[in-house]
Design goal:
The structure is a single chain. The protein is 32% helix and 25% strand. The protein has 13 helices and 19 strands. Helix 3 crosses helix 5, helix 4 crosses helix 7 and helix 9 packs across helix 13. The longest helix has 19 residues. The radius of gyration is 26 Å and the shape is elongated. The structure holds cytidine-5'-monophosphate.
Length: 398
């Protein structure tokens, strides 16, 4: 979790800075706010103090009140892992672009070594003004980041590009700050359920939400990996910087994964692939009759077993969602499918399983290692799994 400075300048979108501070706090970040004089015309320091749980800094000359910082702008500049300017007015953008530093926020921006992101918010004509755009270009070239405004209704009664990006979008830049320890690693992740068509209106499937696989894809992309996500139908949002290959049936997934396999360094199979499909697919909707009905099913290919058989340099991790004898079943799959790791969980447990936001996983390695993870969010669990496959990949690399 990061130390974040939210710098608020004087625009009507300042009220959204309050929402951002609240969101960052919920995500576990430590937040300190700096407000310019004009910002205090729109919202009060008390609002941000309450939401951040920290004093709000408004002046260069507050040292008596906050003796902990000694020289305030330097203390804050050093403390920060990231500075977010929310909203960023044309005036403030221009000021920083030209190296001016005449108040606490601009001196802090000038003095920090942490990444700084601007979230501009202004009238659309103002945003389009070539002078403003030139200042933005100067800042981009100097390595400052921007969370661009979007089209929408503006406070001045017009509509156009100038509306500040949402607090969620702004908070997401923190995810890009992670150590890029997976840079250059090509990862294929499978996720979600498969759909096995029975007739034009019906299919067989399972309860998989795709959350675990999507969390793995998201975290790996945040760590710099090249990620291909082969996913059955899922309502999860596709993570940024991930290439999605959407599939329906187990056989579609098999084809997609086979195509990716030669170029992959690591494959993680988090999908809940249907083991069977209807033997015949009716061209028309199957009509009910009075009696019972028997469905004939045939085996789907076991994708992971195929990957295990055709493995050369790749690191392979499978999942074992079990309801009983977890260890025994997991170890059986590890061996049978020639895997490097199997991530096992008991889906009957309170914190694990379909659609949940947490997971409790035990990972068994082909080398006999056992890693019992505690109950974790699917994001944190994903990071632990990635640490294991990454280490194995680095050890295997010639
Ligand atoms: O044998 P079981 O289906 O329980 O194995 C689970 C693991 O195998 C998961 O990683 C799953 O994605 C993968 N699997 C597969 N192809 C199948 C069935 C399962 O790749 N047809």
């Amino acid at each position: 979790m990061a130390n974040v400075i939210v710098g608020v300048t004087g625009g009507i979108a300042a009220y959204k800075a309050a929402e951002l501070v609240s969101l960052l706090g919920k995500q576990g970040h430590a937040v300190r706010c700096i407000m310019t004089d004009a910002a205090q015309q729109f919202i009060t320091p008390l609002t941000l103090q309450t939401l951040s749980g920290n004093p709000v800094y408004t002046s260069m000359f507050q040292m008596q009140e906050n003796p902990e910082w000694q020289v305030e702008h330097i203390g804050l500049a050093r403390w920060a892992d990231c500075v977010l300017i929310v909203p960023a007015t044309a005036d403030f953008i221009g000021k920083v672009a030209h190296g001016l530093a005449d108040d606490l926020l601009s001196t802090c921006v000038m003095a920090t070594a942490a990444p700084v992101f601007f979230a501009p918010a202004m009238n659309d004509q103002m945003y389009a003004n070539p002078l403003v755009q030139r200042n933005i270009d100067i800042l981009r070239e100097a390595g400052y980041g921007f969370v661009d405004p979007v089209e929408g209704n503006l406070a001045c009664g017009t509509s156009g590009k100038g509306k500040m990006a949402s607090p969620e979008r702004i908070a997401a830049v923190l995810e890009t700050l992670r150590e890029q320890d997976m840079k250059g690693v090509r990862l294929v992740v499978t996720a979600g359920p498969t759909r096995e068509v029975l007739d034009p209106v019906r299919y067989l499937t399972n309860h998989s939400s795709g959350k675990m696989g999507y969390a793995i894809a998201r975290q790996a992309a945040n760590r710099g990996a090249d990620v291909v996500l082969v996913s059955g139908p899922s309502s999860q949002a596709v993570p940024a910087n991930v290439t999605l290959v959407p599939v329906q049936s187990a056989r579609d997934m098999f084809e997609a994964v086979k195509q990716q396999y030669a170029q992959a360094d690591i494959v993680i199979k988090a999908a809940a692939v249907a083991d069977y499909r209807p033997k015949t697919v009716a061209a028309q909707k199957i009509k009910k009759s009075d009696g019972d009905m028997v469905l004939e099913l045939e085996r789907n290919p076991d994708i992971l077993a195929w990957l295990g058989e055709h493995k050369n340099h790749q690191i392979l991790m499978g999942f074992a969602a079990e309801t009983n004898d977890v260890k025994q079943h997991a170890l059986g799959k590890l061996q049978r499918k020639h895997l490097d790791f199997i991530a096992a969980n008991d889906v009957t447990q309170q914190h694990s399983g379909f659609g949940k936001d947490t997971n409790q996983i035990t990972v068994y390695g082909a080398d006999g290692s056992v890693h019992e993870l505690p109950v974790l969010s699917k994001e944190d669990a994903a990071d632990c799994l990635l640490n294991l496959v990454l280490e194995a990949y680095q050890n295997r690399k010639p």
